[in-house]
Amino acid sequence: MNPNVSSSSTNNRRKTISVSGPAKYDQTRKRIERMEEERNERRRETEQKKAARKVEQAKLLAAGNPGDVDFIGMVQEWRDEQAKMHNNHKQPHYGPGSTDNHGNIIVAVRKRPMSNKEIQKKDHDSISCFHPKIWVHSAKFKVDGITKYLTHTGFQFDHAFGEDSTTDEIYMATTMPLLDHVVSTQGRATCFCYGMTGSGKTYTMSAIQQILAHDLYEELKEQGIQVEVTLAFFELYGGFVQDLLHDRKRCKLLEDGKGEVNITGLQEVPARSAEDFLRIVSAGHSQRTTHTTEANDSSSRSHAICQVFLRDPSNGDLKGKLTLVDLAGSERGSDTKSHNSLRRAESAEINTSLLSLKECIRALGQKNTHVPYRGSKLTLILKDCFSPDSKTTMIATVSPGASATDHSLNTLRYADRIKEQRISSSSNKRSTRGPASRTCTSSGPSRQRISRILSALKWNPNSSENQFDIQKATRVEEDADEKYIAESVSTLSGEISDLDDDEGTERPIKETKPTEREESEALRAARELFDVEEELRDEHFACLQDMAEMLQEEFKMIQDMEAMAQASDDAMDNYAIKLAEYLDRKELLIRSVQAKFDIVKHHREMNQSFTRDMEAFVQT
User: What confidence tens digit (pLDDT) does each residue in 426-458 have?
Assistant: First the structure.
């Protein structure tokens, strides 16, 4: 190898390294610096986003809408887009430009504001109202478990009231047409409030009753109608009708030969003014049955029914009837897992009656010849409200919290099936089906009427010094009521044989006396069951006390035996004798409790048998 050539190539490599080395180093260093700058920029952006997220979260918390900031942002973005579209063709709830809600059925929905309990749970608002539509936003994650997205489920009703809607607006759009129908045509009308526990049913119904009290008497005065206003307020709980105005007295449900349902024992109370009206209603509300549920610490567990009668002062003939129903809170089966058997049976009965009510209102809206009002005692009581010429309003109340999304969807589906006005998520046009699409030609309520409706909510029935004596004002006395029962029984016994020959005519009842006897036996069985259950609890408690005392004595006996270095034969004999005594005493205590338990079990079987017989008798 030529040493000169080798030396030349080595020098060339050195020259190349010396020339290209610093340039490559500069490029690499620049790339590293650029990557460092990009990383720092991303970090700054992340910190800014975190800071902005904290500020936004604080703003939302101060505004009473806590929760996931990302979901809230997506909901707000969707609302902004919808608001732009709805501002161009916004529809009023009543008056000029509104739709005609004077069909047989009005279905409305009301969304309440976020509650303090939901705010503490950091729940966020997941419902949007753009009259006449309401949307439920369901927060979900994609398969990766990180990416968030929303689904929007829409429903369309006659009215959709948001959290900023006032009760007077709800009254004028939903209940005022019912009052006009009752006063002007001497007809019958019904207003229901339906929804999950804690959604604001009782709040809405109480406010409607307060406005109705003032509006009713002023309308009668303006139109010069001379009638006597009487009220009956009762609840349906556990299959029993209880008069809330007379110490929760239980009433009997009978049906006469003409198909009229009579609640014997229910007493009407005259209300000569709006103040009397509200005091009577307030007294009834205070007697309602409430229990703690999964969703509410004080949930109404009964259907409260307030009936307003307009009667002829001279002969007592009915000149109109308005029924206000505050339905018990609906619950799913999963919400009753921690309940006892009584609470679960109570919830099952509530849901059964709500299902029957939906079918009856649906049949009324479709003008079917057959209305299945015999599906439950609730619909049987409200039978006269399902006639073709009657009017019905249902106000569905929903909770805005994201944790109640499933409940809200169930409530809206229930109301949607009644009216059957479904919309797709991409539809922006109002459906033209049903009576809600007809144009209203009326100019709406007068300014004077609107003014008194707005001022009605300022009156507080509890602030009055004068107490209303319900017992003194009761329209139907006990003696007259017993006389009516006797006359009804004798009349029914003569009419039943005639009904057997009429084909196609429903037989309301087969016998009246067996019904009364079975009801009295069922009541007696229920009282006896309550007594023996009390005795069982007392016996069990006494048994536990004796067991605890014996347990302490046995521990002491064992400690004494262990303290002996070597137990003598006498000590062992005494130990065995005492142990045998303790075992005998325990056996006697257990047998005593077992005997009480067997008695309770027997009475429970009898009570369930009576209940099944009564339900079968009502359904026949």
Answer: 333 333 333 333 333 345 677 777 777 776 766
The DSSP letter of residue 87 is: T
**Residues whose CB is less than 8 angstroms from the CB of residue 117 and which lie 6 or more positions away in sequence, other chains included:** none
pLDDT surpassing 50 at residue 220:
yes
Tell me the pLDDT tens digit for each residue of 162-205.
Answer: 988 888 899 999 999 999 999 998 889 999 998 888 888 888 99
d(Cα 512, Cα 117) in Å, to the nearest integer?
50
Q: What is the mean pLDDT of residues 375-388?
A: 82
Residue written as token pair 């700054």: 44
Long-range contacts of 296-300 (CB under 8 A, 24+ apart): 296/197, 296/198, 296/329, 299/197, 299/198, 299/328, 299/329, 300/201, 300/202, 300/326, 300/328, 300/329
At 302-348, the pLDDT tens digits run 889 999 999 999 888 999 999 999 988 776 544 544 455 666 667 77
Written as one letter, the residue type at 106 is I
**Stated pTM of the model:** 0.64
Task: List the domain boundaries for the chain.
Answer: 71-428, 479-508, 514-619
H or E, element range at 328: none
CA distance 105 to 545: 61
Structurally, what CATH architecture does the domain formed by 71-428 represent?
3-Layer(aba) Sandwich (3.40)
29 band by pLDDT with thresholds 50, 70 and 90: confident
Residue type (1 letter), 484: Y
Residues forming the annotated binding site for ATP? Answer: 195-202
User: Which tens digits make up the pLDDT trace of 80-112?
Assistant: 888 887 765 566 666 555 555 456 888 999 999
Q: Which long-range contacts (CB under 8 A, 24 or more apart) does 17-21 make?
A: none
Q: Which residues sit opposite 117 in a β-bridge?
A: none
Collapsing DSSP to helix, strand or coil, 107 comes out as strand
Count of Cβ atoms closer than 10 Å to residue 210 Cβ? 23
Q: What number of helices (H) and strands (E) belong to the chain?
A: 15, 16
339, 340, 343, 349: CA torsion to nearest 10: 110
The annotation places the binding site at 195-202
What lies within 8 Å, CB to CB, of 539 at 6+ separation is: 592, 593, 596
Distance (Å, whole) CA 175 – CA 208: 8
Amino acid identity, position 208: I
Comparing C-alpha atoms, which of 285, 307, 293, 299 is closest to residue 328?
299
Residues 173, 95 contacting (CB under 8 angstroms): no
Burial class (CB in 10 A: 0-12, 13-18, 19+), 270: middle
Give residue 230's pLDDT band: very low, low, confident or very high (50, 70, 90).
very high
